[in-house]
Each structure stands twice: as C-alpha cells, then as structure tokens.
Amino acid sequence: MTYEQAGSRAVPDLDLAGKHIVLGLSGGIACYKAAELCRALIKHGATVQVVMTEAAEQFITAVTLQALSGRPVYTSQWDSRASGGMDNNMAHINLSREADAIVIAPCSADFMAKLLHGRADDLLSLMCLARPIESVPLLIAPAMNREMWAHPATQRNMAQLQADGATILGVGSGFQACGETGDGRMLEPPELLEDVVSFFMPKVLGGQQVLVTAGPTYEAIDPVRGITNLSSGKMGFALARAAREAGAQVTLVAGPVSLDTPRGVTRIDVKSARDMLHAVETRAQNATVFIASAAVADWRPATAASQKIKKDGSSETPQLAFTENPDILATVARSPAALSGQLFCVGFAAESQDLLENAQAKRLRKKVPLLVGNIGPDTFGKDHNTLVLVDEHGSVELAQASKLALARKLVKEIAVRRAAHLAALSTRSESHAT
Ligand code: CTP
After folding, report:
1. Domain covering 209-299+322-425, topology
2. Is 261 within 8 Å of 236 (Cβ atoms)?
3. Of these residues, 31, 107, 178, 345, which one is catalytic?
4. Is residue 91 in contact with ligand 1, taking CB distance under 6 Å?
5. pLDDT tens profile 118-164
C-alpha cells in the first residue's frame, strides 16, 4: 500500500502539521522500516526527533535517521549536547517535554518488558519514564518473532502497558525475518502513519457504530457481462477512515472497487444492489449512523442469463429488459431504528446538474435528516471533490478539497447534527407526553 492509497489522495494532506514526534527505535530487524516511517511522518508535516537504543544501532545507523529526520539523533543518556533548546545535560527530560507523542517503532519484547517495569538504564527508557504522562502519550509498535509475541509474558506486558496508559498499535502478520510465519511483525510504515494520524483526531464519533456503503454496484447480464457505473468508492472509503479516526466502530459495505481497506474498518464486499441491501439491512439494526455513499445501480437486467449470451450470426441484437433495484437508503430510513432517531441516516446525491435543487428534493424523497450532494461526473474516480450539505435548515458548501479532508469535515458535521437530531426528537417526544 502506498501513502497515497492509504489516504485515497494524490497529494498528501499535512495531517501532522505542527506535531512534534519523538521516534524511539529499540533493537530489531524492523528498524529498517522505522527509516521509512520517519520519512512518512515528516512528509505529512511532523517534525521528528529520533532516539535510538544501543541495540537499535546494531540494525541501522544513526546517520541514516539523522539524514531522514534532519536532526541529530540521540542515543545515550550521557550525551551532553544541548537538547530541546536546553543546555542542562538532561536529554531524557528535554526531549520528551516538547513532544506531542513518543512513538516506539520498533518496540522489541525486551523493551516492552523494560517499559513495563519502569526501568531507566538507557536514554529511551529513561525518557519514557520521565515523560509527563498526561500530556505526552506513548505509542508502541511491537516487533518480534511470533513465539515471542504469543508468549504469555509478552501478552501480559502488553495488557499492563495499556493499563498504564500506553497505546499499542498492534502487529502485522506474515513472513518474518527469522523465516517463520505468524503474528508479531511490525506494522508497515503506511499503517503506522495512519494510526499516528488517527491518534490525534478528535473522537467526535467515539462509541458510535457507523455503517457506510461505498462504490458502484454491478448488475449481471450474463456470467461475463454486467452493468455498473464510474464510482470509484474513494469518497466512501475516505468516510470510513474518517469515522474510524473519529473513534467509531466502522463497517464498510463496498461494491466492486480495488481500494485498500482503511485501518481498523470491517469490510464486506458485495456486487449487486440486492447483495448490498442484504448486507446493510442485517447490520443497520445495530448501527447509530448510516452513510449511503454508494452509487447504487437504479436498474438491473430483469433476468441474468446463466450462460454467456453468444452472437448467433444474425444481425439481431439482444433485447434487455430492466427491473428497478431496491432503494437501500430509503429502506433503511424507513426502519424503526431510523424513525426512532437511534440511527442517523446520511444520503448522497450524485447529480449532473442543478445540484442544490436536486439534493433538496432528494433529501425529502428519501426522508433523511442530512443529504450530501456532489456532481458525479466532476468527482467519479478523482481524489478531490466539492460537497453541498442539505438539511432542514438549509445548505452549506464544503469547498473543494481532498476526499479525505472532506470526509473528516463531514464526519464532524454528522456528529453535530446527530446530537441535535436526537435532542430535537427527545424534546418532541417530551412535549407529546405532557
Ligand atoms: N441509493 C440507494 N439505493 C438505490 C439508489 C440510491 O441506497 N437503489 C442511495 C445512494 O447511496 C445515495 C442516495 O440514495 O445515498 C441517492 O442516490 P442517487 O444515485 O444520487 O439518486 P437516486 O435515488 O438513484 O435518484 P436519481 O437516479 O433519480 O437521481
């Protein structure tokens, strides 16, 4: 996965602008990935101060990390150079005071054990212990052999570190440098980047269950042909990512698209509108927000041929008859969960003209509190978009931006409107009761 795919965009947004990250490396072969992570953090706007343990220096040189971070690397608690703008010979204090977060990547099994016990016999562990625990969060990217990862001692240490306030970024699975295959690899740099960016996002949808549809649907004519549309799914995938960054548990029901699943999002792949409806209906009951961004095919061939339709040598072309697909959004918006206000429904409108009028009419037709309009031909397949938000009070435009930036704004708008919608419903039911 590339950084661009990770955020569904061609030019990275400076997601980490103004953030200062202390990147700590402990000893492990995954140190080579830390070089790429350092670069990625900087590319996304952060400043990075690297601190390495002696063991890390066995795997990668400080020179490499200094070149990538543009700052001298610290490796020893006895280093007397000025640090963090201070000349007090206390690198362990100075380096952590100016950090927005300390990210240990890779964090070896040994270093985890060390952190757990509050040991402080090298600069990195000393700095972690000396950090102001409330204002400087500690993010840990473990990296180790699968047996070491699965060992009860490691699992115990991980649970305790979490209880002590650290954020464990998880591990990857697959082929390991030792030749074995299993869990314990350090996450890939784009995954870690996504997690670090996500960590800083306001949790405006904390505790919510968000269900998103994305992409086109595919309606079969025969086993090799079908009807679909130009939707790329990028907006829906960006929304799923933004909702997860905002603290929600997210399920993404995706039509046929070739996009990577955002981190931490549960993805269900479907093909046809009827498959999508089925996947959505079963999950909407437990959701609190439903965002229908999919470009669902309005019609499907009335019958799909079971074998490929062949040319028979005559000049006659096949005659296709169509039948209307179910309207997924309208179906969900009529459900008891939506009518009671427990489920907040957000529709999209892909128009080619008269955006505002069409979006307003569509909101009323679909009976949803919020409808998001965009011009389909201007945005399908692209990384940027312009949105107009329509609700009972009027309309607001979200100016052109990357789909991820728009998705983050939209998620905030949804959080605010959902709260207002719930409040209005409860006032209405109270006034009915009195
Ligand atoms: N939608 C849906 N199921 C359908 C058709 C549309 O859930 N069968 C949803 C879309 O996901 C979107 C909204 O309804 O949230 C509007 O979709 P759009 O394609 O813009 O409009 P249509 O309802 O298809 O109406 P029209 O084609 O006439 O513009």
Report:
1. Rossmann fold (3.40.50)
2. no
3. 178
4. no
5. 999 999 999 999 999 999 999 999 999 999 999 999 999 999 999 99
